[in-house]
Amino acid sequence: MLDGQYRKRLADDLPRWREQGWVSDDGAAAILSSVNSGKGMSVTLATMIAFLGAILLGFGVFAFVGANWDYMPRVLRFGLLLLALALAYGAAAELCRRDMIWIADVAVLIAGFVFAASIALVGQTYHLAGEFSDAILLWLVGMAVAILATRSISAIVIFLVGAVYWTSEVIDSGVLIHWGGLVAILFGAATATWADSRLARRSAMLALAVWMVMSVYQLDVRANWPASAGFALLTLSGLAFWAGGLVLGTARAHPRLAALGRDLEMPSFTGVLLALAMTQVTLFLTHEEGTQSVWLPVLLTVLVTAVGLGAWAHQKRTIRLADLVALVLVGGASFALAFWNEPNTGDLTPRLATGSLVLAGALWWMSLGHAGHPLNSKFGMVIFCAEVLYLYSVTLGSLMDTAIAFLIGGVLFIAMAVVMVRLDRRLTLRPAGVAA
Fold first, then answer.
1. Could you list the residue ranges that cross the membrane (predicted)?
2. How many Cα atoms are found within 13 Å in the side-chain-facing hemisphere of 376?
3. Is pLDDT larger for residue 47 or for residue 74?
4. Could you read off the pLDDT of 282-314 as tens digits, one per residue?
5. Where are the domains of the chain?
6. HSE-up of residue 343 (Cα within 13 Å, Cβ side)
């Protein structure tokens, strides 16, 4: 739920809760004060329009200067760029002084665009030679300084976009793993946590996910990793981040780290199921032998890390023993699938094995949602049903087979629902103090 929507819902619910006697007047005031204690303005429609205006203004300035660039003396060109930067940051400082935080962020965003244009135009003016990726790195360094100086959310977001773009440019030149891009993304994640912005944190998680997918693709194409090993690495990494988020979520003495941990749960577990789903599609892609000695220790290290973090989370009582067992089983099964490197012969066994793993992940999602984790159980049910339909479409031949399977599955699901409803009623009506 967005923060603005959450505050509005609380403002609507708290009067009714006071009338019911569930919260006191002082408690309601304290709750509203706590959710409204965030710095700056809320993101409104006007703020979003201002951001769009900043983007249009930035491109308009670039187009105008570029159209007249050849007619200006070099000194005038350089002076215009410095003046534009000074005006953008000066406007940001004045808007921040007036407590118009998000509008000040728009000014910092414009400054970032002006700085990017300055690098390109100065290089063109003085005919500076070099790699395009080096120009991106220079821009990232400047934006890092701007982030530390202004604590701007928009600067963090566009910095993360630039870090991903930098990685894509570098790997296109033949680099296998771009560790510099990872360092930049981790810096963005650290500053997002420091700024205590959910938007920036989610942007950092998305940037990290894109970096991991690009890196796995490079390992698949250039280092000859089997596709099953690449997706196993993504699955195990998702489990490790999910368990790590659970551990961070218990850091009550450090609320910003705890917020980072809570935000990690949903994206990382979603990544686990996406990687499992892609495993069953690409499991049969063949590769040359001889690389197992490279990827095997990597997968084993990530698996041990995920299990260790899961055990730590269980020790802190953030997950149940059943969740820890599920983590071990799903992680172990994904690790085992990395060794499956056979051509597609139409055998049902591998499809059913990977499909069963996706179904288990969907059921685990629903279980976590019911246990209070930030995972909507309905999404888990949708994933489960989609996987069942996929398995029917790729494994069953005739319409009669499909019809029979649907009928049997429907009866079983209805029976399971009846059992779950009756069990829920029994637990609800159980007297207080009686063990479940």
1. 43-66, 78-95, 101-123, 135-164, 176-195, 202-219, 225-248, 269-287, 293-314, 321-340, 352-372, 379-397, 403-421
2. 6
3. 74
4. 765 555 554 666 788 999 999 999 999 999 999
5. 44-126, 130-223, 224-395, 400-430
6. 2
Q: Look at residue 179 in the predicted model and tell me its pLDDT.
A: 94
Give 313-358 pLDDT, tens digit per residue.
Answer: 999 989 988 899 999 999 999 998 888 765 554 556 677 778 888 8
Question: From the CB of residue 82, how many other CB atoms can be counted at a distance below 10 Å?
Answer: 12
Kindly state the percentage of the chain with pLDDT values over 90: 28
Cα dihedral 219, 222, 225, 226 in deg (nearest 10): 110
pLDDT in tens, 213-230: 999 988 888 888 888 888
Picking from 207, 206, 147, the residue whose alpha carbon sits closest to that of residue 183 is 207
Residues in the chain: 436
What is the 3-class SS of the chain, one letter each residue? CCHHHHHHHHHHHHHHHHHHCCCCHHHHHHHHHHHCCCCCCCCCHHHHHHHHHHHHHHHHHHHHHHHHHHHCCHHHHHHHHHHHHHHHHHHHHHHHHCCCHHHHHHHHHHHHHHHHHHHHHHHHHCCCCCCHHHHHHHHHHHHHHHHHHHCCHHHHHHHHHHHHHHHHHHHHCCCCCCHHHHHHHHHHHHHHHHHCCHHHHHHHHHHHHHHHHHHHHHHHHHCCCCHHHHHHHHHHHHHHHHHHHHHHCCCCCCHHHHHHHHHHHHHHHHHHHHHHHHHHHHCCCCCCCCCHHHHHHHHHHHHHHHHHHHHHHHHCCCCCHHHHHHHHHHHHHHHHHCCCCCCCCCCHHHHHHHHHHHHHHHHHHHHHHHCCCCCCHHHHHHHHHHHHHHHHHHHCCCHHHHHHHHHHHHHHHHHHHHHHHHHHHHHHHCCCCCCC
